Hints:
81% of the residues lie in helices and 0% in strands. The protein is an all-alpha fold. The chain has one domain (50-272): Ferritin, CATH 1.20.1260. The radius of gyration is 38 Å and the shape is rod-shaped. The N and C termini lie far apart (103 Å).
Amino acid sequence: MPFIEYKNIENNINDSSSNYDWLWGVLVGFLLAFVQNEIIKFKQIKKLGEIFNFEINSLKTVYINQIESLRQFKKQIQSNSTESLLKLHLLKKLDTIRLLDRVELAKYFQKRKNKASLGYVSEILNNLEITYHVVLELEIIHRNYTVNLNLLLNDYIKNLQKLNFIIRKYSDYPPELKANDELIKLIDTFISNKNMNLIYILELKQNFHNSIRSEITIPTFIIDNVIDFNTESLLIISNIENINKNFIYSLENIETTIVGNFKNIYKEEMPL
């Protein structure tokens, strides 16, 4: 019978036990790291959800302020005021919330809100994204409107210089005829030493330009100059009226979109 070396068997058992201890150590370390990582993720998702809820709740007032500001601005444009200021309340606030991770937010709502998770988050963020781009569009439209309006107002002022030429032609005109000249009276009444702002220029369409076109007799020696001046002026005024009309139409469409986004997000009508 062969001799059994008990010492070697004992050493093998001890070596095997050491191997298992190392393996258990690895498993325990892995589990601890996994648990720690899950805790960190849980805290991050929780923080993200809290940020989302806070921003959505605080955004409600900003939406309302934006619509109030937009409506007030529209009234000023409708009254032909050039001193109105457009305030864009939403852009900065939306920048914070629109870039939040949708998937992580969905996890938060799955655990805490019992709502349609990703669909719920997506509906809110999609409406915020629409609002964001609409307000950006509003900023661009307003900038273009201001530039074009100023160009047209400057064109009108430049066109008034033609009146100087017309008046100079009167220098050799008999004084007794000048006193009864309807055009000179119109110029003195509506043009001389007047502040040519938008409101006044639009009023001149009826008070001054239409009178030239249909109500007064123009001396033959300046009639071509007067018609040229008046036609150009009426065209400029018509262009001003058109860009005002189009701008107001754009404001109304943007207002409708923002109010609709508010309703989709908060499931209530805007309290205005």
